Amino acid sequence: MEFKLEAHRIVSISLGKIYNSRVQRGGIKLHKNLLVSLVLRSARQVYLSDPCPGLYLAGPAGIPAPPPQQLGEPAAGPPAGWGEPPPPAAGASWADTEPQPEGSAVSEAPRVGDAVPEATVTGVGVVPQGGAADAAKAAWSRVEGPRQAAAGEAEGPAGGWGVFPLGSRASRRPCGCPLGGEDSSGTPAATPRAACCCAPRPAEDEPPAPPAVCPRKRGAAGVGGGPTSFPAPGSTPLKKPRRNLEQPPSGGEDDDTEEMDTGNVANLISIFGSSFSGLLRKSPGGGREEEEGEKSGPEAAEPGQICCDKPVLRDMNPWSTAIVAF
Amino acid sequence: EHGGRGGGGEAGSDSHPFPSCCPLPADIISTVEFNHTGELLATGDKGGRVVIFQREPESKNAPHSQGEYDVYSTFQSHEPEFDYLKSLEIEEKINKIKWLPQQNAAHSLLSTNDKTIKLWKITERDKRPEGYNLKDEEGKLKDLSTVTSLQVPVLKPMDLMVEVSPRRIFANGHTYHINSISVNSDCETYMSADDLRINLWHLAITDRSFNIVDIKPANMEDLTEVITASEFHPHHCNLFVYSSSKGSLRLCDMRAAALCDKHSKLFEEPEDPSNRSFFSEIISSVSDVKFSHSGRYMLTRDYLTVKVWDLNMEARPIETYQVHDYLRSKLCSLYENDCIFDKFECAWNGSDSVIMTGAYNNFFRMFDRNTKRDVTLEASRESSKPRAVLKPRRVCVGGKRRRDDISVDSLDFTKKILHTAWHPAENIIAIAATNNLYIFQDKVNSEMH
């Protein structure tokens, strides 16, 4: 379970970085945000990957290569053959590269003064194992599920992701369970998903490696071409309304003065924010989620601005506290 | 020998009004660059200032002070700007300085922040005319009735004055943040690169530039890599290289097409699957690329290594040197505190036999390509008394610990050496440690070999 906690922590940290980037002097740094988004995607894939026997559809070409064989385990299934989920060891191989356990991560944290609140790290370490963690996991994926189902067509993980996380959600294969769709504004429906029979994670079971082989081969000029077998960017209807809601559409090439197109970064934040507030409105796991407060609280106090007063935050569901903060 | 840049900015003194543990952000050095002869050394800082040091000529009177660098000129290159239309603040931090080859008595350099490149001309004035007929010494008009004879004004020596003036301002060429500039060997053009595009400018023309590389995807959601650095080939004016956040290098030939989106050569090394982690992409991002003086090789820096590439071999680098591999197990912490995003630069010595790069704890590393030996040195006031010999440092990673070793957990990650420069001909190096500039000289081996 530790690697999942690690992944979850990395997701939180990454979201915080992206959020903070909005208020940084000099504007959003595209390079750093791109790198953070790649980490975010990797961590989410690890976090959401779960053995879900036999319910994965065949993936498109360009599925990332199998994960590293650090533990000498057999490969987690070739990209094309998606029948079997990867063995848990594949995910666990990630853990070896990170400080284990959480306690050691604290001690190894470099001295950087105020840069990193130690509370964040220690908070995670306090999260109880078992039920609460599973609830967190389930809560996370409940958020993911409806968006993913509604996103419709698949976008390749290789090209479709980029900075924008929606691509990653879209790229996960639905597990075939009847999941509700999003309403037109893209926010998840208020009613939580009934747990689908295979556990509510329609996550792709691909290994935690982001597409390593495919994009590497693609030249820089080919980035614009997008993934090999996927629909043109225009056919992602759910993204467009969201973009228009949150940000004036970037004129792109038409303008004489081109806007620095980082709308996808802002959207990332708003999507995470609004979808988590969907969880806020209806939080069936409220009781269990309070145990997450240990790690949510400090995360809400991460550097960066919190969009409402702290006393208000404290009164809210602790799990949502972290989300609202983002 | 070393110099502090705070306060008066004198290279020879230790004066610094603030304790070194908390430097003013504006004083943090953001770029260091020798000119083509090594006589001048320019530094830029976060506050938008440029300080130029000049090497004192060797003097018979004071043989020990030969070759020291003293402040030559200081000027404000860039100011913070606010783009009200886009609600964007533009930082004044100097990202890069590049010297133009000297073509007359004046020196010229290009300095750039995130958005605007400026050409500065540096001239000396050491004479002034005296003996005007109509004006007196202060420049006031004389009472004509007191003028009884005519004289010819003559040039008299005066205290040296260094004048700096902006000759060109190359603005509005970049939507994204400029990360590098490079002057072409033709001495007429230069290029500037941001995250997604590279523009070619003529040094005399400011109202337009040519876009020669554009990797912006039609849909930004498809973005997977950005340009991180770029440089012209030192001899072939049609060739340049740019590096990407994915760790690849692309060599482009401007003769092949107007838009160099198709590379002539693609240099990338297959990833080692056993090293895969959440942070593999970040640590493979190339933070700096430098052609060797010979033009035959390229040097790249990523988070943990420096690599030497042969232009004739695209499949993998010919040499890889570990800068601080002990950080590989700490990547998560370094991600948390943002250190993993630090962009270290790298440098060749004049004969391309030694390469240098910075690290943490004010350490910097040198690798001798011929002997395969490497050394870790520290730039700090304590260890750098004038004319002291730098003692090699060692980071111990477990196992036997020697007396002066530093353990990995004791490293100070706020003390990072991102910017270093090597004199083009001699064994003189400039090391920027936060807000301090250190200049070290190898007097024993002052000749390159």
Characterise this structure:
- The complex is a heterodimer of chains A (326) and B (449).
- By secondary structure, chain A is mostly helical.
- Chain A has 14 helices and no strands.
- In chain A, helix 6 packs across helix 7 and helix 10 runs antiparallel to helix 14.
- Chain A has helices spanning 2-21, 30-48, 88-97, 102-108, 118-126, 131-151, 165-171, 213-217, 239-246, 263-281, 286-289, 293-300, 310-315, 318-325.
- With 449 residues, chain B is an all-beta fold.
- Chain B is 2% helix and 39% strand.
- A four-stranded antiparallel β-sheet of chain B has the order 1-32-31-30, with no helix packed on it.
- In chain B, strand 22 and strand 23 form a beta hairpin.
- The model of chain B is unreliable at 1-16 (pLDDT under 50).
- Classes of the chains: A mainly alpha (326), B mainly beta (449).
- At the A-B interface, helix 1, helix 2, helix 3 and helix 4 of A face strand 7, helix 1 and helix 2 of B.
Entry summary:
The complex is a heterodimer of chains A (326) and B (449). Chain A has 326 residues and is mostly helical.
Q: Considering DSSP H and I runs of 4 or more, what fraction of the residues of chain A is helical?
A: 40-55%
Q: Give the helix/strand class of chain B.
A: mainly beta
What fraction, in percent, of the residue positions of chain B are helical? under 10%
The secondary structure category of chain A is: mainly alpha
Provide mean pLDDT of chain A, rounded: 46
Largest interface: A-B, 76 and 72 residues
Contiguous runs where pLDDT drops below 50 for at least 5 residues of chain B: 1-16
Q: Enumerate the spans of chain A where pLDDT stays under 50 for 5 or more consecutive residues.
A: 51-256, 271-326
Count up the helices of chain A: 14
Strand arrangement, major sheet of chain B: 1-32-31-30
Q: Report the β-strand fraction of chain A as a percent range.
A: under 5%
